[in-house]
Amino acid sequence: MGSTDRRAGQFGSFRRGTGRRLPLDITIQSFNHSRSWLLKVILEQNPLEWLMMPGVLLMLTVARSLIFLILVLLPRVDAMASGAGFAVPEFFIHEELNGTLNPSEYQDVELLTRNHSFQLHVSKDNKGYSANAHWVLIPLDPLGMVQPSPYWLEYGFPLIDNIDVYFLNDQGWHFASSMGDMRPWSARQRYGPNFYFQIPPDTTYALVRLQTLGSMQFHFKIYDDTALDVALIDDAVFHGLFFGALIIMIFYNLFVFLMARDEAYLYYVILIASITLFELSVMGYGSMYLWRDNPSWMNSHVQAITVGLCLTFVVLFTRSILDVQSMSSALNKILLIECILSAIMAIVGALVSNEWMVRFTAIWPLFVVITVIISGGLAILRNRPGARIFVAAWGAGLVGAVLFSAQQQGWVATNEITVNSLKYGIVLNVVLLSFSMASHIRKLRQEKESYEKEARENYELALVDSLTGVPNRRAFDSVLEQEIERCRRDRRSISLMMIDIDYFKNFNDRYGHQQGDDTLVRAALIMRNALRRPSDALFRYGGEEFAVVLPDTDEEGARHTGERVISAIRKLCIPHEESPFKQVTVSIGAAVAKNANIGAEDFIQIADQAMYDAKRKGRNTFVLTEQRNTPVVNIGDYFKNTPKDTL
Predict the structure, then answer these.
(1) How do the domains of the chain map onto residue ranges?
(2) Which of 57, 145, 263, 569 has the highest CB neighbour count under 10 A?
(3) Residue 480 and residue 537: Cα distance in Å, rounded?
(4) Topology of domain 473-640, per CATH?
(5) Exposed (0-12), middle (13-18) or buried (19+): which is 582, by Cβ within 10 Å?
(6) Alpha carbon distance 335, 321 (integer Å)
(7) Are strands 545-551 and 172-179 parallel, antiparallel or unpaired?
(8) Verdict on whether the full-model pTM lies above 0.90
């Protein structure tokens, strides 16, 4: 049983086993509900946290595609999967070195093969890069084609420049068609990325002429009409998932870039976009969808351009996400040189033919990726976050690129793994790099938190007196305004104390400024400890002056607090021979504003005046002044605004 027969049997058992299929709209609706619930849970978290989960979005999209495949495509395929499709295992090849071969001159196949030295060839072998034309003779009789079903010959390498096909029957050789990636899409017979030629009835041989500036590949298969439809659907689904994953990563990383404003994500977006365009080109979908009517220039230049762009932004992405410059200046210079050369390759690729660039574009990426992996290895040694995943990602990409390049060069056999190795490597690279980027997001978040913490600390330092460790005048102005507003809103009283260390200038003159600073520190500590409530706040107002804000405090509370501060300072017993008290003391003036119906400047002036009253009364005492009914007038303003004849 052929592969399509086995597939048909599996699909048939699927339908027979269930007996019925779930309604499509109910299933998709249920899936959408589950996805919406999961996204809601994710979005309720920290945005930078759920941005580290690209695999969730990718998984949901792939799951939905698979559900669509099972519920919609497979039942349809089951109805037409009774056909056959098989690879051509052996054929004969002639390389055109001198002269040309004219099939119409040969009715006898044996004479054709003998005169032109056709050699037996196995399908897994390939010739690598060759500019010479190659003729491929394919025997069709042994392949088991059963008439009258239409059969198709598929050539599965979309990058062939020119392909001419002849079929042999009882009347001789008949020219079928000319196709290639240099020809418009209208020349093709089937809607697909590869080349398809309908085999006429009673055909015994196919003769194919291949010519290209790139790699010479021999990918031939035979399909009947229904099996070809199945194969085209299979390829469309597989490649749809592949390109869908790439497009998801493009928009995901673009979204992250717009949020985080980190250039690494912009480089990665352009990198994935370049990879996507390159794969569209080499897989034939570029000619199929993007440049159908004028494929010649695009197919001659797009590969060199996209490879150059890929390598340019691979290097920029690596330098940014690993911070290579901080690890090694020499390695950073090497990457910069590779970046410049890759950019030049993209520019030159737009100007010259693919004939000059094809081998360089196959080899140069290997050197760049090796340098990138070395950078990742150095990052591992420096314990950079995500470096191990980064190396694994580009290691997978390197393995895929090496296998694909070796297959294109003709160094390894052609099989399912080597032909699709680059796609597998890209998928692994993108998936693993998404986790590496998650580590990068964590690093960004940690850096942001560190900067915020440093900013808070700097702000707090700007509000704290560096000598005494208590808040400074700037903090005092802010807190006083806030507390007055709060107490006014709550219709509560607020008290303010202005404190001055007595005879402090004389103390500095006698004992020195160092001893004076020590006294300020000790006095601030004692006064802060004398405050009982957490809301009471001590500030250094300037020089030897301090201020205390007492929210929700009336006259009695202010008096008790002031006397407690004076007593605490006296208990320090700091000697002061220039003071009549022979020790350090303080004078305190306090003001109380009922319902906080006062401005901050007036409040400070009243408390300051009370402090000077305490000094006039002999110092080492406490004076309390209640809020006045008339505003405080500056004496200078009084004289300026009073008419002279009244003085």
Answers:
(1) 1-79, 85-230, 262-447, 473-640
(2) 569
(3) 10
(4) Alpha-Beta Plaits (3.30.70)
(5) exposed
(6) 13
(7) unpaired
(8) no
